[in-house]
Specification:
Blueprint: H1 9-15, H2 49-63, H3 74-87, H4 91-103, E1 111-113, H5 118-126, H6 128-131, H7 136-139, E2 147-149, E3 152-156, E4 162-167, H8 172-176, E5 183-187, E6 190-191, E7 206-212, E8 215-221, E9 224-226, H9 228-239, E10 241-245, E11 248-254, H10 261-273, E12 281-285, E13 308-311, E14 317-320, E15 328-332, H11 339-349, E16 354-357, E17 366-372, E18 375-382, E19 400-401, H12 414-424
Parallel strand pairs: 11-12, 12-15, 15-16, 16-19
Antiparallel strand pairs: 1-18, 2-9, 3-4, 4-5, 5-6, 5-7, 7-8, 10-11, 13-14, 17-18
Length: 426
Amino acid sequence: MKEVIDTSPSRRQVLRLAAVVTACAVAAKAPNAAEPPRGETNSYVPADGTATFESVWQTVRDRFYDPRHNGLDWLAVRERYLPEVQRAASGDSLARVINSMLSELHASHTRFYTPDEPEYYQLADIFSGALRRRGLQRAFPDGRVSYPGIGIISRIEVAGRNTITAVIDGTPAQQAGLRVGDEILAADGTAFESVESFRGKVGETVALEVQRGASVVQIPVRPVDLEPTKMFLRGLESSARIIESNGRRIGYVHVWCYAGSVYQRALVSLLSQGVLRDADALILDLRDGWGGAQPEYLDLFNPRAPTMQVTGRSGTSEFVNVKWRKPVAMLINGGTRSGKEVLAYGFKKYRLGELIGTRTEGAVLAATAFLIGGGLLLLAVEDVRVDGERLEGVGVTPTIEVPAGAAPAGSDDPQLSRAVAVLSGT
């Protein structure tokens, strides 16, 4: 996911996550502690907290993209945090100590996740190719990465509440009517946990207590066993729709995750022979979710190349080298990260259309993942420059700034509303 790309297969695997994507083709040097089989634990409890901490510290020492650790004395950092590790009373406390240590590196794609977080499973699935060589089977004995959930992206507020920042299309959360901005207070009368609240309740009704504005509402939801790649792919396909405005048909699609060519193929299919085929213009939504996109995905909007339709003896047709030659706008926000930021950069620089929303996250390092002590370490292992520019810590600014909260009357998504207005001439 860099601007300069070596196209050999192993190299492309590393690059696939200038955001969070595929895998580094180099084996991990840190030891992998055995993990309990999926479903047999109710919360993250490492077998040995000190050993887990040491493995994370050593992996950063040996694999972090900057051998100088961004100017830190990494040995001194270890000595400073080790007493806190020894005092940590639970796995949750250990993870907080580890992440405090990692935060001193001031680098994106560098965090320790536990099985109590949806991101643990999502990253395990994204990096499953590399992790098969690094102990994936110990964490997921049947080779299937999944977790009980409802399909939201959320953040933990200072008060411990879970605030929804995105609702993935086609998931139980969307079907239940959950909205961006909802604060989930409780599930079945107990404090809400992103994974734990749904463990053992797949297919059952869970009563969520939700703060929505000034009101507290009860919302029933039925969690399912989510396989991350399938969830994100279904979310992309379910999001695709036509918005009628000012006599024009505006196509809309949300790419929730770009960590794999399967998502680009699905997008191309929607544009060439799916619901978006006859749209007059397109809104490509890259807000929130995971990155992993390859720069060449922007070639979809290059009009200077032919599209072929190939039809076989059976009459089945396939489009090759599909191009979108109609107007297009791209939506971005602070949750647009990594490979998606590379696309946003190119989209803006080469004037393919309007870039609408707010500045991207500025998380553009290439990373890989390691299973350590029952958790997952996401670690930045390569620096990335795009057309010679370093986007890490900088991000990409939109051509049309639209804050998420400035909603026009009757709209709960002002950025989308502005894109529709731009493309429909209103």
